[in-house]
Structure formats: structure tokens, C-alpha cells
Write a structure and sequence with these properties.
Blueprint (H helix, E strand, L loop, with lengths): L9 E5 L3 H12 L3 E5 L12 E3 L6 H9 L3 E4 L6 H8 L8 H8 L1 H10 L7 E4 L2 H8 L4 E6 L9 E5 L4 H8 L3 E5 L5 E9 L5 E3 L3 E6 L2 E7 L7 H15 L4 E10 L2 E8 L9 H4 L4 H10 L11 E8 L6 H6 L3 E5 L10 E10 L1
Parallel strand pairs: 1-2, 1-4, 2-3
Antiparallel strand pairs: 5-8, 6-7, 6-8, 9-10, 9-11, 9-13, 11-12, 12-15, 13-14, 15-17, 16-17
Helix pairs in contact: 1-10, 2-3, 4-5, 6-7
Bound molecules: adenosine monophosphate (AMP).
The site of adenosine monophosphate has 13 residues, from strand 14.
Amino acid sequence: MTEPLKPGATIGILGGGQLGRMLSVAASRMGYRTHIFEPGAAPAADVAHRLTNAPYEDETALRDFAASVDVVTYEFENVPAASLDVIESIVPIRPNRRALAVSQDRLDEKDFLTGLGLTTAPYARVDSAEELAAAMQGQDRAILKTRRLGYDGKGQVRLSAGDDTAAAWAQVNAPSVLEGFVDFTAEISVIVARGQDGSVAAFDPGLNVHRDGILRNTTVPCGLPSRLIPDAVLTASRIVSALDYVGVVGVELFVTPRGLIVNEIAPRVHNSGHWTQAGCAVDQFEQHVRAIAGLPLGDGKRYADVVMENLIGDDMDRLPEWLAQPDTQVHLYGKAEVKPGRKMGHVNRIIRR
Ligand code: AMP
């Protein structure tokens, strides 16, 4: 254990999107400064102490960034390994590199999860059109997913028996995995934090509804049989302990009649954890800051039933209606341009206290 970060210390954040923005707000509430490193547009910079606007390949910028902060964290898991090497030679990165490496590659992630004895969708490595055709043999439905750089359903092709596998391969044309289609009854996620002392605190699992591969809303409590809740929390706890993780992680799970199946690990604060801002004394952003700063964790207790709705693209037209709703928090990310599929903000509706 290292000494806790002192008030006035600076947290470096790789990625300047809405997650970095909400981490910055939490950090500043805890008496810290933040320095954002972001190659593109950076809504997080509006609420940060400093911004470095440079590509991840700019070694000088990375060195200057790392030298100006006390710890580095990230809101975006696809930071190139070479950039992390430069940063890590100067300042610690939390959560650690292993968590990033595992979650950056869908094949490594699935190998890691099955290695822990956890259940994932059946999967096969696919590196060519021929391998895809072979892997589709005997499958009714499957999803081809690129190993790297896929998010919000991007880099994915859905396939049914008899479909043209050559055409599907042409759409991704990159190292991939073919996942058997899981007939789930629900999608849930658990947001768990692990502190530097190894303590683990979980928030209640939320029920997630996706449309077009993008999260639309999360509801807590998730309404699932109560025996599934400890399963979900234990699954996430095993993952963070195995990774010697420090920080908040989002673990996405499919609920099936035969138990829980792990879909994906996000080694960062997660969209499906935004409800904690209205439901808990210490939300996921403060929890992450506490963990990486070496402070004690909040216990994750929930004080209200909450529905979180994402405001995506034209959903912004309904903003006046949301603002008129009772018991509703509005969070906007400060993005100037509305685009289809772009996450512009979210609302947390308190349903019951
Ligand atoms: P992902 O980017 O892998 O989280 O996938 C986005 C969404 O696609 C998930 O939240 C699910 O709704 C759906 N999905 C992904 N993988 C599978 C699968 N193996 N079987 C059924 N649905 C899936």
C-alpha cells in the first residue's frame, strides 16, 4: 500500500469523454485536481484543471502529462500499450495494465474468464473467412465480434445458419471471435470496486436494456430472483481479485435459465453505474477516485430505487419534459453537436425512497 493521495494532488485521466468528466467532478469534490489526456474533443476538460490535447503516439506530450500528475487512471480502455509504457515509466497506472490488456482483447478476456471457471458464451477464434465458415458449422445463430476496438455493438456482425460467411468476414476483416448466440432472459451488470488494501465493495446489480447495441436504460433493483444477486456480486469480486485490480469495474452479465454468463468486463466506471449518483451516498465516480487515491471505499449501499435513462441523439428534444419531472436528476455532457447514436447525457429518476 502506498500513502493515500493528499488533497491538492493531481489525477491524470486518459480519455476526455463523459466518464472522464464525471470522474473529474468527483475528484474535485474530494479535493483533487485532474489533468485530462485526450486526442479528440474533450467534454471532460470543461471541469478539469488541465487538458493535454495530443495523439496517444506523442511521446513528449505523454511524458509531460505523466510528470504533471500523481497517478494515472483511464475512462477509455483502448489506449495503445506503447503509450502506457511511456506513462508507467514515470507514474503508477490504476487499475493496472493487466486489467486493460485483458479487456482490450475479446479473446484474451474470454480465455481469462473461462480460466477462472466462469461461464462465457461459447466462442471460437476466427482469423480468416475460412475459419469463420468452419466455426459457423452446426451453429444456429452467432455473433462475429472483432477482438479489438469494438464498443456499443460496433465491429459486430450477427449471423444465422446459411448466411454468407464470406460477406460477414468482409465486414470485419480483422482478428475476431465468433460467439454462440446466448438466449438470455435479461442483461444485468454489477459495478464493483476494489481498494488498494484488497477490500471489495459492490453496488446492487442493475437491469440493462440495450437498443442497437447501445445501453438505453438501467433499473435498480434489477427485479431478478434474489439468489442471482450474490452470484453476480461474487462473479465480479472474483474477477477484480484475480486481476489484483484497484478501482471500479463494470461486469456485464447475461441471465439465462442455466445461470449467469459473463458478457464483458469494462475496467472503468460504466454507463450502467450512473444510477449510483442518485441511489448511493458514494457514487461509482467517487468510489473510483477513492480506490485509486488509496482512500477507504464507500460500502455501496443503495438508498433509493432508480431508473437511469440515457439521452442519445434526438432524445435531447425531450429535455424540457425531463426537467419538468419530479425526483429526476439531469446530467448533460456538454457535447455541442447532437448526432444519432451519440450519448449526450442521462437522467436518473428516483422511483422510490
Ligand atoms: P457487446 O458490445 O459485446 O457488449 O454487445 C452489445 C450487445 O449485443 C449486448 O449487450 C447484447 O445485448 C448483445 N450481445 C452481445 N453478445 C451476445 C451474445 N453472445 N448473444 C446474444 N446477444 C449478445
